[in-house]
């Protein structure tokens, strides 16, 4: 068990592997405190945040909006479709501008993996960067809210059996979660179409058929089929996918009594999991969305703490 009473302080949040176990547990603990009503003491300083989303988002974008407002930050609106991005301005110059006008923290989602490298190497850009998802790379804030949700349920990670199922190669959620859950002592099982599995995941867990895994696991984490990252040549049947790789009502009956169902959402209902399971008793999907606000408050606080 990792204990921490220290408040976490971060310059940026770009990947989960850059966090120590103590920092992860510190953020989970702080997320839980915010959920119970804790208030951030910003020493009276005014902070500015902006959310730069170059890929579509509902949960990440809007829960950052809510988290920023709950912390009392000034939120600078940005829409790529009505910004100077439409005149050809690059991501670098957009962030440089935000930094120059006084933005303290920029939450960024972008289609390019590792888009943040050139931003953090800049000597001119002063604002902190929080990665809201980089292509098929990582989704660290989703990983941390998933960890918070698992921790709330079980109170530990060591020895938990976690299935990560679905479109693994294209999922940044899967990559962040497999790295951190393995490091925290969970046992990982992978399942889903073989063409969406990569041998590089072998170091984190064991690949198998869902029917051979379903009765073993404490956490059944389904992933969205990411059609937008496919090349369009694959034939795909929703019903065929659901029956072979999805959590059907029949398969869900074989889950352990205390097992929970998770999905980062958006969900393709009746594809990754049966419609009736989404809001069912074993689902923690709604809790994941709510926890997103509290975990993002903890992350924002951690990057602003050093500037306060
Ligand atoms: N889970 C997640 O990242 O959802 P959005 O794409 O809606 O932000």
From TrEMBL:
Coiled coil: none
Positions bound to L-aspartate: 87, 172, 224
Annotated ranges, domain Aspartate/ornithine carbamoyltransferase carbamoyl-P binding: 11-152
Known role: Catalyzes the condensation of carbamoyl phosphate and aspartate to form carbamoyl aspartate and inorganic phosphate, the committed step in the de novo pyrimidine nucleotide biosynthesis pathway.
Pathway(s) it belongs to: Pyrimidine metabolism; UMP biosynthesis via de novo pathway; (S)-dihydroorotate from bicarbonate: step 2/3
Protein family membership: Belongs to the aspartate/ornithine carbamoyltransferase superfamily. ATCase family.
Species lineage: Bacteria, Bacillati, Bacillota, Bacilli, Lactobacillales
Gene of this entry: pyrB
Annotated catalysed reactions: carbamoyl phosphate + L-aspartate = N-carbamoyl-L-aspartate + phosphate + H(+)
GO cellular component, one term: cytosol
UniProt keywords, alphabetically: Pyrimidine biosynthesis, Transferase
UniProt keyword Transferase present: yes
GO molecular function: amino acid binding; aspartate carbamoyltransferase activity
InterPro entries, alphabetized: Asp/Orn_carbamoyltranf_P-bd, Asp/Orn_carbamoylTrfase, Asp/Orn_carbamoylTrfase_sf, Asp_carbamoyltransf, Asp_carbamoyltransf_Asp/Orn-bd
Name of the molecule in the record: Aspartate carbamoyltransferase
HAMAP family with a match to the protein in the record: Asp_carb_tr (MF_00001)
Domain (Aspartate/ornithine carbamoyltransferase Asp/Orn-binding) ranges: 158-302
Binding residues for carbamoyl phosphate: 59-60, 109, 139, 142, 265-266
One annotated GO biological process: 'de novo' pyrimidine nucleobase biosynthetic process
EC number: 2.1.3.2
Natural source organism: Candidatus Enterococcus clewellii
Assembly and oligomerization: Heterododecamer (2C3:3R2) of six catalytic PyrB chains organized as two trimers (C3), and six regulatory PyrI chains organized as three dimers (R2).
